[in-house]
Amino acid sequence: MTERSTGALARANTSARADARDVVRAWLLPFVLGAVGFALNALVKLPVQLPGHNALFWITALAFARLVSANPLGGMTAGAGAIAFALAVDPLEGAEVAVAGIALDLALALRRSPHVMWLPLAGIVANLAILGAKTAVGDAPHAVSSRGLDVALASYAAFGALGAAIAGLMASMRSPTRPTGTRPQR
Question: Quick check: 96 and 134 in contact, CB under 8 A?
């Protein structure tokens, strides 16, 4: 083998490994993060008696998955992971998380600039989508009827923004060398 062909073979192997890492980061990582977020929500019960507080697990997992993957459908992929885990626990709840993942991806796709406020706004949209999905299937939280729609909307919005902000903080601590959601230059 010549030196030239050896170099080309080494570049091809490096490129194949980089492509495999890209596939894992784009699809498998968000899927697993969605399942982990759903599992945490099922296992850890917060003593918070406000509607929408589960967003601290769901929206955080969905938004973090969207930020750390180079996949513009990272939130939806994480929602699919939640559905996969939820099949054994509560499929309807998993579907609600998937709706939130789609809403999160759509909200982030509409942004015109990478301003820091887009992420909490996307979290609000995603958590309100969960409330909408619950209401559409007749599973509106008891807190909506007992505390009023205004309190439920405010609480869902606040927890959605907080969950997304937590995900943003986690993603910013992950890699100080390059912006989150971007692919490394080859």
Answer: yes
CA distances from 41 to 46, 72, 94, 141 (A): 9, 24, 11, 16
Measured in degrees and rounded to the nearest 5, phi and psi for residue 182 equal -110, 155
> What's the pTM?
0.73
Phi-psi region of 101 (alpha: psi -120 to 50; beta: other; left: phi over 0): alpha
- C-alpha 134/C-alpha 114 separation (Å) is 31
Percent helix, percent strand, percent coil in the chain, to nearest 5: 75, 0, 25
Task: Measure the CA–CA gap between 66 and 71, rounded to whole angstroms.
Answer: 7
Q: What is the DSSP letter of 24?
A: I
| pLDDT, tens digit, 9 for 90 and up, residues 67-110 | 887 777 778 788 888 888 777 777 787 788 888 888 888 888 87
Kindly give, in sequence order, each residue whose CB lies less than 8 Å from that of residue 95, ignoring residues fewer than 6 positions away.
Answer: 83, 86, 133
Token output for 62: 């969905």
Closest CA to 42 of 93, 84, 77, 92: 93
User: Tokens at residue 34, please?
Assistant: 């969605």
